[in-house]
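Reopening this ticket.

The earlier resolution said the output was attached, but the attachment link was broken on my side. Pasting everything inline this time so it's all in one place.
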Amino acid sequence: MVVIAGGSSITCTHKCCFDAELQTKVGRVKLDNLEVVVLPADEDEFILGNATMQSLGIDVHSMLEKMARPVS
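Inline output:
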């Protein structure tokens, strides 16, 4: 069972591990032994989860807080 955005849950029946390289503005980032779950969808992309982003030093929640503007 995986909790997705919005708090909904999806049952995943497959997962795999792989190595990836991401091309960024400052160069390549190598990600070794990523464990991913396979979600039922007709998509040709993958999404990095919060734990992976944090391991890269990226705090998504903090970034969103900085971008948020008070609603008046």
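Reporter confirms the inline version is readable. The mean pLDDT is 84. The helical segments are 50-55, 60-67.
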